[in-house]
Amino acid sequence: MPIFRYVAIVGSCLLALLFLMGSYLQPSTNEASDFQIDKSTIRIISQIRTPPPVIIDGIENTGF
Q1: ∠ CA 47-53-54 to the nearest 5 degrees?
Q2: Is the dihedral of CA 43, 49, 54, 55 positive or negative?
Q3: Residue 36 and residue 7: Cα distance in Å, rounded?
Q4: SS3 (DSSP) at 2
């Protein structure tokens, strides 16, 4: 099947390029390692409230 062959060839080329660039480029220096963040005070609260759940009662007789 041509699509599977295409995906295999392109995927292997991209994977090879990823490994090649990973070995070619220097590892990045972490300049932010001196800066410490107090993560205990970070709070994320959503302002969007979801609608209340719909309860479907199958016990009631609908007359059918």
Answers
A1: 145
A2: positive
A3: 43
A4: helix
The separation between the first and the last C-alpha atoms of the chain, rounded to the nearest angstrom, is: 52
Write out pLDDT tens, residues 18-57: 999 988 887 766 665 566 767 677 677 778 888 888 888 7
Which single residue is written with the structure tokens 């970070």? 42
Q: What is the 3-state secondary structure (H, E, C) of 5-45?
A: HHHHHHHHHHHHHHHHHHHHCCCCCCHHHHCCCCHHHCCCC
Task: Give the Cα separation of 25 and 34 in Å (integer).
Answer: 24
Q: Which two tokens stand for residue 19?
A: 């490994």
Question: What would the two tokens of residue 43 be?
Answer: 């709070």
The two three-digit tokens of residue 24, written as one number? 């070619």
